[in-house]
Amino acid sequence: MRFLLVFLIGALFGTGIALSGMANPAKVLNFFDLAGSFDPSLAFVMAGALTVAAPGYAILFRMREKPLFDQSFRLPKPSAIDAKLIGGSAVFGIGWGIAGFCPGASIPALGLGHTSAAIFVAALLVGILIARRLAKAEFFADAVGRSG
User: Membrane-crossing residues (predicted)?
Assistant: First the structure.
């Protein structure tokens, strides 16, 4: 049941991305083109999502102590703004601005047959692998530095 629900939620998200036009990288890139063919529709899609999600989360957390299919809600913990956060945000923004895809919109774009989405997803996966290796190397460097 859990996997069916996850699939249905993902399908709903993907349908929303496709219907809103956000799977079209040109539409997203036009949002960033303030001096040219600016298209504000991305801002309206984000505002619409927040309008639904914010009250939804507020209601959910008041009604339930835990999710249906897990032992607890897995929410991010507040953390300090550090170099990793700033660097990761910059890389995300640069990638979004260059390609016109964010990770969430690239998967529905694959289903719509955008070849540029396939290139983006491949680059995304390579980036994830590199980031994981760098994180492991940093962890081991920290551990060696502390023990010496």
Answer: 41-60, 81-101, 107-131
Q: Which domain holds residue 79?
A: 2-147
SS3 95: helix
One-letter amino acid identity for 28? V
Listed residue (127, 128, 108) closest to 45, CA to CA = 108
Per the structure block, which two tokens stand in for 106? Answer: 């690239």
Burial class (CB in 10 A: 0-12, 13-18, 19+), 44: exposed
- Total domains present in the chain: 1
| pTM given for the model | 0.71
